[in-house]
Specification:
Elements (H helix, E strand, L loop, with lengths): L2 H22 L2 H31 L1
Helix pairs in contact: 1-2
Amino acid sequence: MSRYDELTGLVEGLGSDFNKFYGKGNKAAGTRVRKGMQSLKVWAQEVRKEVQSKKNAD
């Protein structure tokens, strides 16, 4: 799986919880959104490190 596919999967997986939280006020969905966003943040940091190491290797 490419990094882009991973990114789109993470973002699309949050869609229903965003709708439930912002559209319907479901507080449990808000917790899932926060957890998903934290996972996205960790993933993004890993990708940044990977890109930097590949950039420096060349």
